[in-house]
Amino acid sequence: MSFKTLRYILIQALILVSVAGTFGQTKDSLPSDSSKLKTKLSFVARMQQFAEKSAKSSIDDFEGDKAAIAQNRILEEIKKKIQKAKSFLKNGVDTLGTKAKLISLNEDFTIAKDGVLTNKGSSQTFRNLTTTSKILTELLNKANASKAKLDLYQSEVNRFRYDLDSLLSQRDLFKFSSDSATLSKFMGQLVVAAYEVNPVDSSLKKENNSIQGMLNQVNLQVFKIETGLEEIERYKQDIARNTFYRDFDNIWGKVAFYRPFSEILNQAQAKGLLTLVFYLQNNIGKLAILLLIISAAFIYLRSLKSIYEANKLTTDNYEGQRVLRYPFWSALLISVSLFQFMFFSPPFILSVIFWLISSLSLTIIFRGFITKYWMNVWLLMAVFFIISALDNLILQASRTERWLMLALSLTGSIVGLMVLFKGRKEELREKLILIAIGLMVFLELASSITNIFGRYNLSKALLISGFLDVVVAILFLWTIRLINEGLFLAFNVYTKQDPKLFYLNFEKVGKKVPVAFYLLLIFGWIILFGRNFAGFEYASAPFRDFFARERTIGDYSFTINSLLLFILIMGISVATSKIVSFFASDKHQVQDDKSKNALQSVGSWLLLIRIGILSLGLFLAVAAAGIPVDRITIVLGALGVGIGFGLQALVNNLVSGLIIAFEKPVNVGDIIEIDGQGGTMKSIGFRSSVISTWDGADVIMPNGDLLNSHLINWSMGGSKRRTLLSIGVAYDSNLEKVKEILTQTLDGNPNVIKTPPPSVNYEQFGNSSIDIKVFFWTKHFREATQTKSELIIAINDAFKSADIKIPYPQQDITIYKNEDFDTRK
């Protein structure tokens, strides 16, 4: 019910109240003849009339009370709904910000359509279509996001209006009391409610109209973008189908469409920046991961370099150890070259940035390593690549650009031929580079020919592909070489590491690069090479569809991409956990007590760190793969059944590992003793722990047994130990002198600590000596045995000098002669 309807009803009700009051006054003033009637009615009739009147009065009172309760409830709900509506309108959508986004969206759309939908020219270019498509796709996503936000806000506005109208239209609200005073009071409440509803209802209407206006603009923008994308898709299909057909006239022919070259450059710059900004905004997480990988690789290579320098294992000029001479640039080259494939369908300008960073890193690594001739060849190829990459960023064709492309392709072909036929091949370290240069010559010659005869799109793809072929081939070859070199160098110093800590078989790593690495190189090169051609996207579409197609097993739907993503994330988390354990257990970095204590501190928390890494990896893998939570519940239920039937011991060990990790009765590096066997705690794992005994063996003990054993932890008491030394002296010895000698000997040993002081106690009179017990404390558990040995030597020498005897155990035997037992008689 609208506010106007409510106001009409209120006016009518007020009129009725006033009329009812007047009628009541008139009725009271009229004479009554009821006395005459009463005399004629019988007693029974009067009682029946009284009963009916009382019943009707009771029913009216009950209905009136019921209506009053309902009316109060409705009025209270109206007040609450009004407050919520006011709060919603106050904190509603930012209309100014939305309008600013729409203006920015329209400006970006104007930039994107330039050269494709407007200022088309005589023919479209593949690079312009690809870049414009990426921009329009991002603009469409932003427009749809704004549209969804406005739709949701408008639905909330309409819901508030609907709720208020529903409350104002309830029938209980218009059940008026027969009592004029009660009715007047209720009508006053209705008037107040009506005046409170009126401004809110007007604000909701106004807000709805405003949102609808913005929605109309957004919908219009969405329609324009979708229409532009459809047109671009048709252009791209035409170019893919007509790859070898003519795009323009011959290079010396007539110009069909002219646009100043400065405008073309400005258009390319604006579109290139837009694509880069949009892509970086959507992939900020991957960039953060890339920085973490670069940092981790640099830390690893720097630690490896410090090990080699500390052990004086480095060679002159770092021959075969280039990865150690430039750990930062090597880490940067390896990380960027490999991780660039994690950026799916990146804009060309981002790929150029990655390639430039890698080329700069490799140039620094090459310095002082390769000969001057091949260094110049590399720099020349890098310059050719940079120029061709900048040219590839130009989106709209022009006659000026075509002449520049022809000059560049011919120059590259001539240089390539000179390197192939007159180059110093004997100085070349990687012979495979010659194959890449030969392919470059072929592609650049093909680019020159196709450019001359008007095949612009094909010519441009061949131009960038030729130089990209050489640069990427060199980058990948050296990336693989540096990776293999780093693994080989690690093998020389990490051969004694626990193989369970790091899944890498160093024994299979040699100076020769494995074939699998070259296969990965070729696969990556094909991807980068194919991205430059219009037909690559359509040729790779079946493969993308195969991995992205949704499959169903029972009620669960999945894609191969999601499964691969799950496996990849879990693999990374497991590898990260192992790498953390690897470096935490690295004994090569322990050179002093401070480093040793830091290593033990890390090792004590190692299990919790690994659990945290694996738990986070599992959570991210499940979220990324889109696995439903109810499926995880089923798996946990099945696991519970398995625990009940036969996995009690395994679960006991796992839980015991967690208890050890949290309560810390023992830490990594602690000196312990179990059942009389001592050793050092080497590692604490999920299921079992490793103890290095004094005999040199490693004892693998389940965590449950470790927790339930009578464990003696010497390290928790500060690693000091009290030792007993038992001595016996002859009965004729000067006991005061003996005690003085023992005290001086104990004080003279540096390993015997003074607090608590040593103790010399005379225990008993033995069979052949007076027994003495000497108690002393050593600084460290490991020093007890050696200190005891030293004290025995010192005490023996001191006793000899003081003529104090340590008697041998002796027994006197007395032989009695008895004539009765003389056998000779």
Automatic annotation (TrEMBL):
<keyword id="KW-1133">Transmembrane helix</keyword>
<feature type="transmembrane region" description="Helical">
    <location>
        <begin position="605"/>
        <end position="627"/>
    </location>
</feature>
<keyword id="KW-1003">Cell membrane</keyword>
<dbReference type="InterPro" id="IPR010920">
    <property type="entry name" value="LSM_dom_sf"/>
</dbReference>
<feature type="transmembrane region" description="Helical">
    <location>
        <begin position="633"/>
        <end position="655"/>
    </location>
</feature>
<feature type="transmembrane region" description="Helical">
    <location>
        <begin position="515"/>
        <end position="534"/>
    </location>
</feature>
<keyword id="KW-0472">Membrane</keyword>
<feature type="transmembrane region" description="Helical">
    <location>
        <begin position="377"/>
        <end position="397"/>
    </location>
</feature>
<feature type="transmembrane region" description="Helical">
    <location>
        <begin position="433"/>
        <end position="454"/>
    </location>
</feature>
<dbReference type="InterPro" id="IPR011014">
    <property type="entry name" value="MscS_channel_TM-2"/>
</dbReference>
<dbReference type="Pfam" id="PF21082">
    <property type="entry name" value="MS_channel_3rd"/>
</dbReference>
<feature type="transmembrane region" description="Helical">
    <location>
        <begin position="403"/>
        <end position="421"/>
    </location>
</feature>
<feature type="transmembrane region" description="Helical">
    <location>
        <begin position="284"/>
        <end position="302"/>
    </location>
</feature>
<feature type="transmembrane region" description="Helical">
    <location>
        <begin position="466"/>
        <end position="494"/>
    </location>
</feature>
<feature type="transmembrane region" description="Helical">
    <location>
        <begin position="348"/>
        <end position="370"/>
    </location>
</feature>
<dbReference type="InterPro" id="IPR011066">
    <property type="entry name" value="MscS_channel_C_sf"/>
</dbReference>
<dbReference type="InterPro" id="IPR052702">
    <property type="entry name" value="MscS-like_channel"/>
</dbReference>
<dbReference type="InterPro" id="IPR049278">
    <property type="entry name" value="MS_channel_C"/>
</dbReference>
<feature type="transmembrane region" description="Helical">
    <location>
        <begin position="563"/>
        <end position="584"/>
    </location>
</feature>
<protein>
    <recommendedName>
        <fullName>Mechanosensitive ion channel protein</fullName>
    </recommendedName>
</protein>
<comment type="similarity">
    <text>Belongs to the MscS (TC 1.A.23) family.</text>
</comment>
<feature type="transmembrane region" description="Helical">
    <location>
        <begin position="323"/>
        <end position="342"/>
    </location>
</feature>
<feature type="domain" description="Mechanosensitive ion channel MscS">
    <location>
        <begin position="650"/>
        <end position="715"/>
    </location>
</feature>
<feature type="domain" description="Mechanosensitive ion channel MscS C-terminal">
    <location>
        <begin position="725"/>
        <end position="806"/>
    </location>
</feature>
<feature type="signal peptide">
    <location>
        <begin position="1"/>
        <end position="20"/>
    </location>
</feature>
<dbReference type="InterPro" id="IPR023408">
    <property type="entry name" value="MscS_beta-dom_sf"/>
</dbReference>
<dbReference type="Pfam" id="PF00924">
    <property type="entry name" value="MS_channel_2nd"/>
</dbReference>
<keyword id="KW-0732">Signal</keyword>
<keyword id="KW-0812">Transmembrane</keyword>
<dbReference type="InterPro" id="IPR006685">
    <property type="entry name" value="MscS_channel_2nd"/>
</dbReference>
